[in-house]
Specification:
The structure is a homodimer of 310-residue chains.
Chain A lengths: L16 H14 L13 E4 L13 H13 L10 H7 L3 H5 L2 H13 L2 E2 H14 L15 H12 L3 E9 H4 L3 H5 L6 E13 L2 E12 L5 H9 L6 E4 L5 H8 L6 E6 L20 H5 L6 E4 H4 L7
Parallel strand pairs in A: 1-3, 1-6, 3-4, 6-7, 7-8
Antiparallel strand pairs in A: 2-5, 4-5
Helix pairs in contact in A: 2-5
């Protein structure tokens, strides 16, 4: 009934507990007559993006976009030299940028993400992502997608799962590449958003992006966003930081067999090693409580045969 | 390639310009090689709900739910006898209810829609809709769905369209019945929403509905909501009031061949006749400007062979 992927499933995973847990879960929920069987309409899986589907170090990809845009726009904004978050960016002080806190980051985001139409913004992102290079790997960010997670997406879709991205990243930023990169269409991408206004000028309608936060989709915002957009509880959730904790909790405490998986980045050679340090990518509670909650913890070093997509 | 509906398409429509315009549009956008051809991933159609897919007179169905809930809860709220919008409801003064304005209506909605979990709310709606009866037709509201519009939904889906509901109604109210009634799954229902909060109590997570508006999806809010949820511009839009004007404008002023249709309720015998009177259901600008914009105006009296679903 289901079309199987051409290759053996999860072929870029090493054999081990995480790979077997994923295969076992998929078998249980898709085998008619099994007590954990779930009809295909309810087979919904949600994935965090940064650090779960692609690289998020040394900074989330969207932060690199912000930095490059600030630099590009700086000549038109001499006043930025005297404003803290902008000055840190222009000085190349990345630690300083991340230390400006939520208000400072919001200021940077608004200066680079608002004041234009949705079409114009998507064009900027597309142009940027086609040329930007990762500072360490010197490759396009779109190359730095985790092949093992692409395998998971393919396996789930081959078993009639609908796959969603649920990220704290900007939804209109992500939608420019998620379909090509992950096979996830725009309507299955959920993220943070700013206020958008419908404006008609000379008979031509446009959606204008306003410098005001509409929704921030991190932490407890993730189950809330899932409810707003999907309207039913997914049965599988994939994340990598404590920003995903509530989403995994929501998915795995439902009436159905729910699957939770956390990617623990512990491979400094092939990628990055990080977990308990404070910051957006912090992973502590998930490591402490995940196993007791039946969540699968992936160790990149041991469990992934390959890291980036081929 | 496409599976055709079992019956001739649009069989509850009388032959005439609107029926032919729908069939012609579907043929153009789904015929490979035609200049208006649209790949199936971009075949997105949006439908208003109240007055477009089901009856909205003498009051929108959700307003009847509010009234019945206020009555049911009144014994626990003696203070309501002194509060204007509540008193109008308890006195059965429907004109008074509709005259309280947006603030008064919001008060009534919050008193009946908030302060409980999403699951508890969905349960209340399901119980109500199973027993409530329309005041004139004495039938369940779920019987008062327009068969010709069900025909349109079936025709579009048979041609690989993804069909969405985009309504000013409460999204969690609608999601309890849209799948059964229209074949539209929860994730394709877009509407107004209140703030929802993720709360964990004794280890059990729940989404709690707070008495605060999150998004109101009428008028210019419709294209905004389409952008937030779908992230691409639909190619067909169906509405019945000026609350749908911006949505039709957005859809029909895109780079692609866009189809706009307005249902004009002019059949007081079989259903209701209404248009230019002020109120939520007002249709004036759409009648004045629609034809010049190439929109199809449906006259229920002439164009629909049958009104309600069989």
């Amino acid at each position: 009934m289901n079309s199987e992927p051409a290759n053996p499933p999860l072929s870029s995973w090493r054999d081990g507990a995480p790979r077997r847990a994923i295969l076992d879960f998929v078998a249980r929920v898709t085998t008619a007559g099994h007590p954990d069987f779930v009809p295909s309409a309810d087979r919904i899986a949600v994935f965090d993006n940064d650090g779960t589907l692609w690289v998020e170090q040394p900074l989330p990809v969207q932060a690199h976009f912000v930095i490059d845009r600030i630099r590009a726009l700086a000549p038109q904004h001499p006043e930025w030299q005297g404003l803290k978050p902008f000055k840190a960016v222009l000085d190349g002080d990345l630690a300083g940028v991340m230390a400006v806190g939520m208000d400072g980051l919001t200021e940077l985001v608004m200066a680079t993400h608002a004041g234009m139409s949705t079409d114009a913004f998507a064009g900027l992102v597309r142009d940027w992502i086609a040329t930007a290079r990762h500072p360490r790997f010197h490759r396009p960010y779109t190359d730095l997608v985790y092949q093992p997670m692409l395998d998971v997406l393919a396996l789930l879709r081959a078993h009639d799962f609908k796959t969603y991205i649920v990220s704290a990243g900007g939804v209109e930023f992500m939608r420019t590449f998620c379909e090509t990169l992950y096979g996830v269409p725009p309507e299955q991408v959920i993220g943070s958003s700013i206020v958008t206004k419908y404006v008609v000028k000379d008979g031509e309608p446009a959606l204008m992006r306003e410098p005001q936060l509409h929704f921030f989709g991190d932490k407890e915002g993730k189950p809330v966003a899932i409810n707003t957009h999907i309207g039913r509880r997914p049965i599988a959730a994939f994340g990598n930081s404590d920003g995903d904790f509530a989403m995994l909790e929501w998915v795995t405490r439902g009436p159905r067999a729910g699957f939770g998986l956390i990617v623990h980045h512990d491979d400094a050679d092939r990628e990055y090693a990080y977990d308990r340090d404070p910051g957006l990518a912090r992973l502590a509670r998930g490591l402490d409580e995940g196993p007791g909650r039946g969540w699968t913890i992936v160790h990149v070093k041991d469990d992934w045969d390959r890291v980036f997509r081929s």
